[in-house]
Design a protein that fits this description.
single chain; 4-stranded mixed β-sheet; 4-stranded antiparallel β-sheet
Length: 97
């Protein structure tokens, strides 16, 4: 049975289109911009099962990252860095100001 999962697009986004798919099904297409004061560009609430695959892509930069959802995942974070997308589970619930 699917459980709630939050996807947080965090640092490094400057207005790029971000595509989010779950097992090949498009969930969202957002224009992500990270306010420096907040550190959060976009939050997506979804339902997912452990073992399903999230695919996050930034077409303008030809970046694609895949993440397999773990049994204990509640929040998955995505950061856009010079080297590419960094995707992983949050060890603690992120706090934004």
């Amino acid at each position: 049975m699917p459980h709630p999962l939050e996807l947080h697009l965090q640092g490094g986004f400057a207005g790029q289109t971000v595509l989010v798919d779950l097992d090949g099904r498009r969930l969202a297409e957002v224009q992500a911009r990270t306010p420096l004061q907040l550190g959060l560009a976009h939050r997506l609430d979804l339902q997912a099962d452990p073992g399903q695959t999230l695919t996050i892509s930034v077409p303008a930069r030809s970046l694609v990252s895949r993440y397999t959802i773990g049994a204990g995942d509640e929040v998955v974070t995505v950061n856009l860095e010079d080297a590419g997308l960094v995707v992983g589970p949050a060890r603690e619930r992120p706090a934004y100001f």
